[in-house]
Amino acid sequence: MTEDDATPVDELPPDLALALDDFVAHLRDERGASVHTVRAYTGDLTDLLHFCAARGVREPDGISLTHLRGWLGLQAREGRARSTVARRAASARAFTAWCLRRGLADVDPGDRLASPSVSRTLPVVLSVGDATALMDHAAVAADDGSPVAIRDRALVELLYATGIRVSELCALDLSDVNDERRTIRVLGKGRKERVVPFGGPAGRALDEWRAARAQLVSVGSGHALFLGARGGRVDPRAVRAAVHRLASGAGVSDLAPHGLRHSAATHVLEGGADLRTVQELLGHATLATTQRYTHVSVERLRATFALAHPRAVADEG
Hints:
single chain; mainly alpha; DNA polymerase, domain 1; hpI Integrase, Chain A; three-stranded antiparallel β-sheet; 13 helices; disordered N terminus
């Protein structure tokens, strides 16, 4: 019998069903994942576990790398988009890593599971949904307690929350964070200082990172907010690698830290902010730079036109 000829099952074996329920509860209650993310993970993993059960798997410890690759191969043969296959691979890796941490499996087969590359479009601007998926994936990836994974989650949260440049992020010191006001002090181009706000999710990610930071501290750490794996101040190359890795794992369009800056500016504009506010947020010297940098959606332009122009109303028949 081939992989594709395996007998389907109507109900999951009890141990697989319980593991799925517990993982979904973990995403929802412990990680605070969005409804969209929980729904996506649930659908992906239900499909995966049915695939495995049809091949004789009865508990999480029976899931192998062969099963995972066979399942992803089936997605590709069914014509699913590469971004969908990449997202499903991310779901599988998150689940198998969680099973290992919870003692439900002795090894993590997902650790060796590769994702298909997602074609890149320029300029990269994530949708709000994809940005949420990226942040949720970063949170799940940080579940293993690794200080680097916890740091990477804080990196992407802060980049997206503030729209700061990667060089500005790397230059941040611990004292630049104001927890009471929830702002960071940034030294931008031309050594111009500005204060940028951030929201609750970035604040929580920063709290977790600062609690884990001691695990990476070395004699060369100084007062740097973000540290590299060897304890020195993190460099832009490490940040870019982290963003690329998390974007791939989340199954969203590949992007660099600048793409998170671009996405943040676009989403703030589409949320109703004016160009001068975004100019201040990004630290641009002139408004012309902000106008070139941001992309206002066609839908928002049309809506503004319809409300503002005296001759925008269509003729009545």
